[in-house]
Amino acid sequence: xxxxxxxxxxxxxxxxxxxxxxxxxxxxxxxxxxAGAGFEGFYFQSYSGPFSDPIYREAFxxxxxxxxxxxxxxxxxxxxxxxxTCGPIAPGDYCxxxxxxxxxxxxxxxxxxxxxxxxxxxxxxxxxDGSVPDVRWMVNTGNTRRESTQAYLIPLLTxxxxxxxxxxxxALPCVFETRLPALDYDLAMxxxxxxxxxSYLRTYACDQIPLPTxxxxxxxxxxxxxxxxSSAIKLANNSxxxxxxxxxxxxxxxxxxxxxxxxxxxxxxxxxxxxxxxxGLKLDPNEYFSASADQWELPGKDTVVIGLGQEPASxxxxxx
Length: 320
Fold this sequence. Notes:
single chain, globular, disordered N terminus, disordered C terminus
């Protein structure tokens, strides 16, 4: 797994939704299905475009019913894995459950109206400067879960007065190598692959926004700049005290939630299968799968064969 909060999920991912139901059975094989290290959510590009306006971004966020979305898209294969309450950060000590249910369509309408927004004859929200924001929602073509999410949500968002259109392209090189690093989107949906320790949050500091000033080298693909959060990230990553790190990362998550810069949804389900006679295998969700490889032993065999799900079109396939 990648240890940074990078856009590692570059594949079509058309089969992962049914992992829990379609895991093959064999008497000598034991399977374990659990929440993995991939965290899916909605990400707003806030450096430019419609979501650079915090009022519009908040109203848009408040118009998405996460509970209904989860029931429609994720519940059929989620099993016992619940909807995320923090992100992009792994559940555990550092997750403070800062993201609660924000669905409030009436509050969204009031927020816009109080800040000079009006609605035209088609019910679309019109900004104080007289324009209707055009929201480009980007996902990787061929990912049926995300395309289904667009098909489900876009009509509901249109009904709420937001002009949203699917603006998709292939995972590689378009989405993950070209458009995300160039901040060439308004709303995106993808998976961040994260580690239990949230030091990777450094990628969300202001100086990590990919711009000419840093030779387009940053990974803050949301273009989010919150100086308070950036300072807390630096303090946390330079501290050896867990209590201090907990305090600072808690602050970062509070700023994430306050700015409504992303909407966490789901921790991807993953399955691991192993021969029941394999000795030394440890399936610890806080460690890499191969962490105990030096202890593996299969009685009567000289070789332990490892099989991995792998999509050849993805440059990240070995990480995935």
